[in-house]
Amino acid sequence: MSSTLSPVVPASAALPLLVVAGALVRGESAEARLLLQQRPLGKHHGGLWEFPGGKVEPGETPAEALVRELAEELGIAVDPADCVPLTFAVRSAHEGLAAGRDLVLLLYRCAAWQGTPVAEPGAALQWVDGAGLRALAVEATMPPLDIALCITAQKLLEA
Ligand SMILES: Nc1nc2c([nH]c(=O)n2[C@@H]2O[C@H](COP(=O)(O)OP(=O)(O)OP(=O)(O)O)[C@@H](O)[C@H]2O)c(=O)[nH]1
C-alpha cells in the first residue's frame, strides 16, 4: 500500500502573491519626508495612497523586482544594495484578495537613488511628514496593508 498523500490544493494555487514596495525617505529629523504614490483610478485600490512598487515577476528576486518597479513607476535608478528590508504585511486570501491567494507585501527602505521621482500618467506623488502619514492612515486613504505598515514607516520619519 502506498503511503504517498496527494495534496488537497495544488502547490501553485497556494503560493502567495509577492509584492515589493519602497519606503523612500528624503531629508532628516523634522525635515524628513516619505514618498507615497496615489494609485490610478480604475485600478484595484484606485485613488488610495501607497508605497511605490509592484508584483515580483517569475525569476526575479524581491530586490530586483523593487529596482525594476521603481524605475518603471518613478523613473529613478536604485542600487539593490541600497534596498534594506524594513517590514512586511500579509493579507489573507479570505479577505477578498484577487485570485484567492494570500498577498505578502515586503516593504524595503530605500536609502539612496538617482534621479527625481516622477509620477506615471494617472498617478500622483506626495512627500509626507509623520503627521501627513498618520492622517492618511486615520482617514483610511491607504490600502489596509499599508495602514499596518505605517507604524514602522513612521519610525523612519522620527529617526
Ligand atoms: N505597489 C503596491 N501595491 C500594494 C501596496 N499595498 C497593497 O495592498 N498593494 C496591492 O498589491 C497588489 C499589486 O500591486 P501592483 O498593482 O502595484 O502591482 P504591479 O505594478 O505589478 O501591477 P500591474 O503591472 O498589473 O499594474 C495590488 O492589489 C495593490 O493594491 C503598496 O503599498 N504598494
From TrEMBL:
Keywords: DNA damage, DNA repair, DNA replication, Hydrolase, Magnesium, Metal-binding, Mutator protein
Catalytic reaction equation(s): 8-oxo-dGTP + H2O = 8-oxo-dGMP + diphosphate + H(+); 8-oxo-GTP + H2O = 8-oxo-GMP + diphosphate + H(+)
Molecular function as annotated in GO: hydrolase activity
Domain Nudix hydrolase as annotated: residue spans: 16-150
EC number: 3.6.1.55
Cofactor or coenzyme needed: Mg(2+)
PROSITE patterns, per the entry: NUDIX, NUDIX_BOX
CDD domains: NUDIX_MutT_NudA_like (cd03425)
Transmembrane segments: none
SUPFAM superfamilies reported in the protein's UniProt record: Nudix
Domain of life: Bacteria
Family: Belongs to the Nudix hydrolase family.
Protein's name according to its UniProt entry: 8-oxo-dGTP diphosphatase
Species of provenance: Novosphingobium pokkalii
Taxonomy of the source species: Bacteria, Pseudomonadati, Pseudomonadota, Alphaproteobacteria, Sphingomonadales
